[in-house]
Amino acid sequence: QVQLVESGGGLVQPGGSLRLSCAVSGRSLRFHAMAWYRQAPGKQRELVADITSGGTTNYADSVKGRFTISRDNAKNTVYLQMNSLKPEDTAVYYCNRPTSGGFGSWGQGTQVNVSS
After folding, report:
1. How far apart are CA 86 and CA 115, in angstroms?
2. How many angstroms separate the Cα of 68 from the Cα of each of 21, 48, 114?
């Protein structure tokens, strides 16, 4: 039904940048808020950023000023531009609706490794 495909992760040096993409199929994003989450080994998944259907954004304090969430409804895709990356940003990044149930499932996520 709803498929979430995250991409764009990789290995980057501290201070570097990455742009993550979340392609959604099976459901139009036009009327849905969307969010990026991340999960580091041994830790709970945490909300990183979200964006409403109208384009209003919200960020976790840890990423404010460094990350930018955006959406392209025509492409049914959500993006996360990550700048000034820090080692503590290392995690698997996922996208989903910022609701308790999300779309009911999760994608495979995309691995972000920030290391020197």
Report:
1. 8
2. 12, 10, 17
Measured CA to CA, the distance from residue 56 to residue 5 in angstroms comes to: 23
3-state helix, strand, coil in the chain (%, to 5): 5, 45, 50
What integer best gives the mean pLDDT of the chain?
97
36 Cβ contact list (under 8 Å, min separation 6): 20, 22, 47, 48, 49, 50, 69, 78, 80, 93, 94, 95
The residue count of the chain comes to 116
Is 63 strand, coil or helix? coil
Tell me: the pLDDT tens digits for 32-77? 999 999 999 999 999 999 999 999 999 999 999 999 999 999 999 9
d(CA 28, CA 41): 31
